[in-house]
Amino acid sequence: MAENSSSGGSSMPSAPARSDDPAWAHGQVVVGAKNSSICVHYSKRINGGGITRLKYHFAGIKGQVEACKKVPPDVKWKMKQLIEDLTMEKEKRKRLRIDIGNSQSLSNDEVEEGDSANPTLSDIGSQANKRLAIQGTTEHNARKAITRWWYDVNVPFNGAKSYYYQPMIDVIASMGPGFKGPSYHDLREPLLKGVVHDVHEYLFEIKADWKLYGCSIMANGWSNRRNVPIVNFLAYSPRGTIFLKSVDTSGLRKDKETLLKMFDEVVKEVGQKNIVQFVSDNEFAFKAVGKALQQRYGTFFWSPCAAHFIDLMLENISDPRYFPMIDETIKKARNIIKFIYNHAWVLALMRKDFTNGNDLCRPSITRFATYFLSIQCLLKFKKELRQMFTCMKWVESSHGKSKVGKEITAIILQDKYFWPRCEHIVKVSEPLVQVLRLADSEEKPAMGYLYEAMDKEKEAIKTRLKNRVSQYGPYIRVVDARWDKQLHNPLHAAGCFLNPGIYFRPSFSKQKEVTRGLLSTITRLVPECDTQDVISGQLEEYKKATGDFGMPLAIRQREKLNPDPISLDNIDLLNEWICEEPSLLNGDDISWETIEAPLSTLTLEDEETCFDEENIELDGNDQLLECLVDDLPYIPPQDQDPYFYVNDGDDV
Known about the structure:
Elements: E1 27-29, E2 37-39, E3 45-46, H1 50-59, H2 73-114, H3 121-152, H4 165-175, H5 184-188, H6 190-213, E4 215-223, E5 229-237, E6 240-248, H7 256-270, E7 275-280, H8 284-297, E8 301-304, H9 306-317, H10 324-341, H11 344-353, H12 367-380, H13 382-388, H14 392-395, H15 398-401, H16 403-413, H17 418-440, H18 450-464, H19 469-487, H20 490-497, H21 500-503, H22 511-525, H23 529-544, H24 552-556, H25 575-578, H26 642-645
Parallel strand pairs: 4-7, 7-8
Antiparallel strand pairs: 1-2, 2-3, 4-5, 5-6
Helix pairs in contact: 1-2, 7-8, 9-12, 9-17, 9-19, 10-16, 10-17, 12-17, 17-18, 18-19, 20-22
């Protein structure tokens, strides 16, 4: 914020008339100069080429035009996508023209063979069907050829999920027949060196951005398949996350002094002035080291992992000591899903006749989020499951007559508390899972949204529980304990302040609170007083939306431009929900080879509400579902208060 740049084009129209190309949101036309434009980020004039040349400028593609040095990463990525789409569209048109030419040639040949100068509509349709059949056969043969190579070299199946898989196929297809793939020598020597060079160039560009935008260092402790303890260090910035180093800690003491030396080396390698925050989990030694580094350098923050702490909130809400109803319901739900997924005949029956190919499991980013999402999915298919366990196929089957089958049937059909409790659990957990999704998302930047998201999450829980403090109180105490004691820090407030989509929203009422957090952040990250004064002046322009911040373009982009994001890897933890004890499996079951893959699996993107607030049945004997007097404040005994049983320390 310490640098001002003027686009110098306030009198220029933003885009040509009737143009809806998204690139014009970042460029302006030059009046009186044909096909010329100006980049609003870099104040660079692009002569000729129109919007296409402007896109190359934003995307930083060499050989066309000088790359923009100030374009936001998300805009740069979007422009690259637009150029790739344009290139593919041109290639499709080229192929279409070739196909049309071949089709006309084929038609002429067939006309000559049939001695008919005027082919009928039936003839043309027959020719089209032949071409479609040939095309289908060709595509099938191409897929088989890829499959044979895949099996021959024993490539893991998840290689098909590689980011580079489809682009590779597209490029090969565009080369046409006769294209020769890289040889053994090419792969070992020149091409390998070229790819390594590209990676080094990419890393160099990212590291150069650290001086301008800063970065977050992430320390992740884990054990590999041989149970060797490892600590990975990564650096995140708006340009992306890069791997720094991995340290085998099996021969090291896990005390504060040893870890501090290891972490301090990373700080020196990256450069303390380039670091905004040091992120780790809340394991006692990691936390102590993080705070020691923060105190030693005084120019960056230590922060706990946001997704980790939100998952701990979900874990606390399923704690059998304080929420036995939720723990009991989760166990019943898990037994239902385990039974279905460990019996091929039952799974096939469910997919084919009742859920229209949908699965019940909800893979998620953390263990406890998987618990609550799986319950949400069960609730979504409540009606279908009740129909399934009453149909004649089930009743007459060996599974329906088995002891375990009868126990599962009893839960689904006869347990009058199970489904209402599932509804209650979803009401409580769904807002938290949405915040967890935000913290782990690569689509939206968490730092600029987490502060407000936590407030909204608590309000959502209160509303869903009819604002009855006796019902929502214990859950809010869990959230407050984790947020107040462990997760909240000034960076979240600063991120909220610098997110114009939230700060300028009429309903946002915490401007003063987040301003204090921002000032605390600036004091730590920017020690130079002169620079602080410059930033302070710019903050006044920002808060009052004057100067550049008051321009129509800046106002329009408030909800579109992203502040710095933070991201974690996705983790799939379903074993607890689908792995049954071997002794419970039925030897008379159908072969697993006959089970088809599900048509679809519900994901975190499914936003459908899975409960009916008007028809929920409450368990009058359960304290958490009991409707107590609402005008009395929720004040539990200290030995039963979730706020106090959440420790300020060594959660892992």
